[in-house]
Write the structure tokens for this entry.
Amino acid sequence: MTIFVDMDEVVADTYQAHLDIYQKDFETSFGKEDCDGKEFWQCVPKEHQKSVKDHAWQVGFFRDLKVIKDSQKVLEKVSKKHHVYIASAAMQFPNSLKEKSDWLDEFFPFIPWQNRILCGHKHILKGDILIDDRSYNLHNFDGRSILFTSPHNTKTVDYERANSWLEIEEKLL
Ligand SMILES: [Mg+2]
């Protein structure tokens, strides 16, 4: 099988990074549990929203992301059995291309550059499974769509859902 795996909020914890930067900038202490069903920028006061939207443009933002729990060990196993491709709409943030490539080299060295698709629209992807946290990416995919749970999508319905990489392991292995 050919399996596409998104990066942000599936293997890389972008949401946590927004939270960490925000807490540092504004010395507040709200957590992921306060963000249920919303984009992070929607959870902060209006006067802070621009600052949050600028995070992804900061040099180093995508290089410093933490790895989502269990994603490395499960993907390593899955990639021995299936054709695994990382598929990230990285062109939204052109500065992220090198950072994402370096990040994958460090944390997912078993996925070679030939299996990394840093792209724009994902509807051009043709394969069997797409794992993504964005319903608009899953909506246009012809194969099996799996929504990976992130604070912003907890209220999204109509998709097969995985709450963790251990659940992905159960589904795919
Ligand atoms: Mg994503």
About this structure: The chain has a mean pLDDT of 96. The first strand starts at residue 2 and ends at 5.
